[in-house]
Amino acid sequence: MRTSPRLLATEFALPWQVAVLCALVVALGLVAWLVSGREGQLILPASIVIVPLTIATGYLLFLRQAEKEAARHSLASVHARFSDIAESAMDPIISIDEHQRVVLFNAAAEHAFRWPRGAVLGQPLDMLLPPRFRERHDRHVAQFGATGVTSRRMGGPNALIAMRATGEEFPIEASISQHVEDGRKILTVILRDVTERVRSEILLARSEARLRGIVDSAMDAIITVDGQQKIVLFNAAAETMFGCPQDEAIGGPLAWFIPDRFRHAHLAHVSAFAATGVTSRRMGGSRVVMGLRRDGTEFPIDASISQLADGGATFFTVILRDVSERAAALDALAQSREELRDLASAASSAREQEQTRIARELHDELAQSLSALKMDLQLIRHGLPAIDAAVGRRLDRMETQVDATIAAMRRIAADLRPLALDDLGLVPAVESLVHEFERRNAVSCELAIADHGLVLPAAHATAVFRIVQECLTNVAKHARASQVEVVIGSDASAVTVSVQDDGVGFTTTKPRNAHSFGLLGVRERTYLLGGALRITSAPGEGTEIEARLPMAT
């Protein structure tokens, strides 16, 4: 410890005070002796000099002793306060002398090193260091002592290693200071056990390494940008996708990889996303986002974006996937579907034409032939003068068979293509269909048509008729319904067909019966005209089928 300034002032002030008092006393004695005028008589002057001098000297010595006691008391208080601070400190504090022997070892040091204080005081500091670091530590302390610097951090940016009484090593941070106390140089080291911090740093480094490995091995491109849209992370997949080396991309603008016409919209999208506070979401919605390779070629990508605030800065991470092959496959699939749609439409039209031709031939040729045959049978019956009873019965059966054949022929022709649809129009044809359904199945069927003068193009009229026909056929086969309602409505943009029954219903998510084509036919006819089909059903709750067919513009 340094000598108290007050004590130094006292030690230098007292001799001067004594000298001044002595000079004053001698001067007074001389004056008295000269005034007395009695040479040779020195007793009185001597008394006058010695007595006051003795009293003054004693008083000054008393003052000096009092000052010393006060200084010692103050120094002891300082020592006590320092000891209390050192003992209550949460960090270990160790002081060593010029020979690196421990002269102070506080309670926190006892806890950190697992050594009792009595076993350490007076011992070399080396006992608290692993053997491999002792020589280097001695050099470091000696160099520091020679610099004259009062304090500095030890070990630089790296943690130092200390050793507990058990031999266990642990990382520490340390700062060293030096001062002179009673002519001796004392060095004091303040330590901090950073085991938990180092362990956390190791775990964080491992986690970052794993994350880096995952990012670099990811099949999708991963790009992270800062608030200024400068790239701070660019993984290997991004290098391959965009044809740009990582070293070149880091620090560059993300705009390098966005086509010019999309850059402004992208900035607005990122700004809006940052304002929402949402951590992540898909970019582009239902549309495909376009990327730009370094060679200038554009390609479609799927992208999702996330944001993370770190140290007051916001970083945006985009995960990208090149969907060029998928987009090409979707285009090919769409083209294939369009071709199939055209093919199916042509096949359906050809089928309808063939069915119309067959229905016409049945009606015009076979029906006439059967009618002529019936007339011939009647002529035979009435032309013969006498007919045997057995022959009469035979003629009756023949007429009945001809009538049944004519009825079956008309039914088959109507099923193939109702002549009323071509001759009278959609509304009479559907009315006839509903009437025939009620007659055959004994099920009440209500028909509601908003416009009885409804006139549709041939393809739409045929589709509406066939949809109603298929739905009523399904009701007759499967629904076990007692009431059916058919509604046909139209507006400027579409015609709507709805068939609803109160039958047993079914589960719409159940796989289709491989041998059932009724609803499949309804769906196909709706699809061929670019329409939409809705089927609503549940067990015990009946079924509603609604088809909306857009009108050609």
What can you tell me about this protein's structure?
With 553 residues, this protein is an alpha+beta fold. It folds into 5 domains: 5-84; 89-199, Beta-Lactamase (2-Layer Sandwich); 222-322, Beta-Lactamase (2-Layer Sandwich), CATH 3.30.450; 323-417; 421-553, Histidine kinase-like ATPase, C-terminal domain (Heat Shock Protein 90, 2-Layer Sandwich). 54% of the residues lie in helices and 21% in strands. It contains 15 helices and 17 strands. Strands 1, 2, 3, 4, 5 and 6 form a 6-stranded antiparallel β-sheet that branches. Strands 7, 8, 9, 10, 11 and 12 form a 6-stranded antiparallel β-sheet that branches. A hairpin with a 2-residue loop joins β11 (298-310) and β12. α14 packs antiparallel against α15. The longest helix is centred in the middle third of the chain and has 60 residues, at 324-383. The radius of gyration is 57 Å and the shape is rod-shaped. The model is unreliable at 1-14 (pLDDT under 50).
